Each structure stands twice: as C-alpha cells, then as structure tokens.
Amino acid sequence: MIAGAFKAFWGAPVRPEPLAFFRVMIAGIVLVDTATSLLPWTNMWFSRGGPNPETLGATFSHLGYWPWSLLGGATGGAGSFWIAVALCFAALLVLLGLGTRAACVAMWACIVVLHLRAPNIHNSGDVLLRVACFYLMLMPAGAAFSLDNVIRARRGKLVGEPVLPWSLRLAQIQICILYIATGIEKLIGFGGFAAPGDWVGGSAVRRTMAHALIARWPWFTDLPLWVSAPASWITLGWELFFPLLILWRRTRYAALAYGVILHLGIFAMMEVTHFSFTTLAWYWLFVPAAVVMDLAGRQTGSTGKRIHTVFFDGMCPVCKKAKRNLERLDWLGRLQYEDIHNRAAAETALPAVTYADMLRQMYVKRPDGSYFGGFEAFRALAAVLPLCWPLVPFLWLPGAKFIGTRLYRFIARNRFKFAKCDDEACSLHLKLLAGKELDETVIKQVIELHERYRRTKQPAPAASAAG
Amino acid sequence: MTGNVWRGIRRGLVALFVCVHLGALVAYNILQLVPGEFAPAAIGPAAAYMKAAGIHQRWNMFAPQVSDHAGAPVLVLVFADGRMEFVHPPSTPRLVHDVPNQLRIHELPPEQRVCHWSFHIVDGRMRKLESYTTRSGPQFIPVRSAWTRWMLTRWLAENPGRGRELAFVQFARADVVYDGDGPLPRIDRVVPMLVEPVDWPVPARPLPGVLP
Questions:
Q1: A167, A308, A453, B136: which has the fewest Cβ within 10 Å?
Q2: pTM, to two decimals
C-alpha cells in the first residue's frame, strides 16, 4: 500500500492546469517587479558610483555571501540594464507560454545573474521568486493555457494531456520545507516557560505589527495580547504542521485558505514588496486541476466553457430572486439553471438526491459530475463568480462549513416567511411547505400541486381540440 | 529496444536528480537547525548546489524572535565651522528624520512614527540595502562605505558649492527600538559606524565611539 502510494505520488500523471497558473503568476510577478523596481533604476543600483559597485562582489565572495553572477566582474549599469531587459522579455514569453521551456531557462538564468549581482537589495520574496523560476525550468509548465498549446493544436497534435508529476512534487515539498523550517526556527526561540519567546509567548504578531520600518499602519502598534497570542500560536502551529495539513485531504483547503488570508494580511499590514503574492503563487500547486479549471472556465483540452448547473426551486419566490441575482453575478457566463420541479431531469442529474432534499436546499452540479447542496453549493458557486472570489478563502476556513451550513439551513427554512408570490401556484406551494416537515404526505401534495399547475399551462390549441 | 533503453536512462537520471535535490533541500534547510558536528559536513555540499542553482536561502522570517530594533542609516556631514548636519534617505521613517543633529542621543521621548501606505516601488529594495549598511561586523563595512559615498555624491549634486564647506563625512546608525514596553517606537541612540573612504570626494574621519 505504501509502495503504491509512493509510486502514485511520484509517477501518476497529473493535469497540467495548476502548473500553468503557477507559471502565469510567477512570470507576471517577475515581469512587474523587474520592470518597476530594477529596470528603471539599473544605473543607480548597479553602476560603479552607486550603492552596489561591482567591487562589493569581491568583498563578499570569501565569506560565501556572493554566489555566481555573470555581472560579478567589471560590468556596470549598462550590462545590468540589458540583463533586466532580457529578463522582462523572457518573463513575458513565459507568461504567454511561448517557447515555454526555453523561456523558463532564460528567465531563471537572467534572474540569477541580476539578483545575485547585488544580493543586498533583494529579500526573501526575491529568493522565493528565483526558486520558483528554478522549478519552472523543470516543469512542463507550458502544457496548458499557453501559445505553445495553440500552435501544437494547429499542427494537429494532442494538447492538454496529463503530465509527469515529479517536478510538481519537488516544488510542493520545497514549500513545505520552507514553512517547516520557519516554524522550527520560531520554536527555537522558546527558552522554557520562564522565557517563552515571542512566538510561544504570543507577542510575535504584536511585535511585527509595531515594526518601525515595515509596518504600514500606526493603529496596530499596541495590539492586545489576547489578539496577538492566538494569532501567533495559530500561525506557528500552521507552519509546523503545514505538510500534514496539506497531505490530509480534509484539512488541505482549510490550510490553504488560512495561508491565503495570512499572506494577504501580511501584505496589507507590512511593506514586504511582492513576498505575499509570490508565496501565494505556489499555492496553485496544491489546488486540484478541477478547481483551477473552474476558475479558468474552460473544459479540459477544449475551448468549451465549464458550465455549472444550479438546481433551484422554480416555485419559490426567494429562490427565483436568488437565481436572478446569480444571473447578475455570472459575469463569465458559467451557470445554467434547472428547475427541480422538472423532476425527471433533476433526478437524473442528481441520482443520489431525493426530491425532498431538493426542496430543502439548492444544489449545484460541477462540470466534473460532482454535486453539492446547501452551503457547499454556495461554496462551489463562489469559485466561479468573480465578485465572490475574495470570499472563497474564508469559506474554507475551519469552522466555516459548520457555521455556514447552519446559517444556510436557517435561511432556507424561513425563506417562505419573507416571500411574495406573483401567481397562484406559487402561493399554494408556499402554503404547503411553510413550517412543515417534508414528509411523504407533503411531498405527495407538492407533486399533485405541480401536476395541476402543469395542466393549467397546457397549450390552448390542445385544450380546444380536446373540447 | 533503443527507445526502452533511453526511457530507462531518462528515468534513472530524473530519479537521481530528484534524490540529490531532495537531499540538498533537507540538508540545507533542516540540518542547519540541528546542533552537532554532523550538520556542517552535510550542509557544505548542499549549500554549494543550492548556490549554483540560485536557490539558497535560510527560511527564518521573523524567527526565532521578532527583532525589537531596527537600524536606520544616516549620512553625517561635519562642516569646517563645526556644524553637524544629518542627511536621511527618504525611505526611512519620519521618526528618524526628527532626530536632532547630535550623535549619541539617549532616551528621546517616545514619538509617533509616520506610517503610510507606502507604494514607493524602490523602497523595499532600498530598505533591504539600508538594513545591511547598519549591521555590525567587518563584512558590512564595504556595503556601508558604498552607500555613504553614494549618498554624499547625491548630496553634493543637490547642493552645488556647499562641498567646499565640508570638513569630513561620517556614517551613523539611528537605533529604532520598539520593545513592546510601550506602544510607540523610539530612537534610543545614534551611533557612528566605521566606513572606508576610498576615492571619496570628501574625506571621512572616525568619530568617537565608532562601531565596526
């Protein structure tokens, strides 16, 4: 069993879409960061009279601080400028997925040459960016969402096929090691309960918020310990157990959701340049291809849209209003709707769901065939509605399902109290359902009501012919 | 047959690379945290590999403790008539700029720093450079010297003619402390630090109490 899992982990092909999202985000960051913070200032950063003259290279080399760079010699600002231009060009090609593998190699070489020419102006985010470029070289990152694919498809070749996972696994392990190493280093500060240190003692978050040089806002410099301590402990525990949380399917999304909120919070509170976004780019490597495809809105290997089907109660005015709102939010045209009172279609599409269940809550069926009800249906919808995307990490936090399910049930149970009907069938429908348990008798009555309703909607010519 | 051989060789090479890379990752990142004699021997080759790949980094952000102080660099201009003037880079907080032009100041009254949503693109890099200039240790003297010379060159360009009034220049570090005892960070002291004046337009002279 262990051997099988090992073989599957390293050998079973995986969908390339998450790798493509990782590629696009990393290349975008490299492009924007280089074009804004290095390219216009190469003369200042790298020239002989600037704060980083090339003579610093020799100073650092014997201490092991100065790894290789083609710019470590006599080259001044002009050489750095052209390397920065080349880096931007390579990043653009990687972003578009044109000549992806060669462009990734060029991007890695240029970023190493440029960054390591002056390591004292680069931070952890920059290193993480370089590390990402290294893994992109190894990955089949152009196997999806790339111009390479368009060209391959025009030549009649297969595109969007699953790829070997070893480079993806290495990158996943890399980010796990990053978090574990950081967590252990933080734990080292624990000097026993008499001197618990910042992280175990709980003052770490308060101190980072008060950091004189990187804190963005003055309002959090005196964060109370009852806020700082839980935040510090949760962060420490999350870092230490990150690999386990990711490995276990049930905690995976909660761990990623916490990471998204944490890193966006860090960006909002501290001036850490692109560090947060670079870290978040790595998270794509843990997201299943189905979710990535949901966000991208495309069917695997084709240009067809990935459509979600929303099953709604067509006789419930609240549900109809919710449907109208969904239609407004569906900017990408990703939703289609099915009235649950079209029972044959609904029950075929959702074979394990009873009609009573459908009356109780909304269902959503994803393009991969999986379906969800109630809060989970809302969570599945949020992933395809751009306006709801900022909500998504919060919906996956621990406890969100517990609270969300109960909140949804409360609203669903009481939806009839606030409803206003615009036809008689709707009024009868509400009268039948309001405040009642959905037992067999009620379901039977609902079905009879629908039959009557359907008969009233029969086309007139048929009625006159019968007469 | 030939295809199978090549596939086998390719798989073997990939497996070898995966093993080497994983070994280096663990050795460089995790063994550094293990005390003992074994660790340095294993870290050496791993470090060489990681540096060659441009991916070496000790992941210890805000660890093991969150620092309770930060250094802000100051260019100190001493004029021929004995006056002293501090020149601050724009990327350091206002708190540092408000320090009177005196060295060795202790226990300034607490003062609210000016926080702002900073999107000065280059600031992140400049702050990193500035943090290196204010670190103690001989290896950072060249970094500090280059920064001081660069700041001085800029000041001379912005103040034509005033260079003649200068007697010498020096580098100083303003210690910003935020130790959690109070809500506000404060400047504890401004300390002169050693620089190497090579090819400078104005000489540098050690001031009393200079740190390496």
A1: B136
A2: 0.83
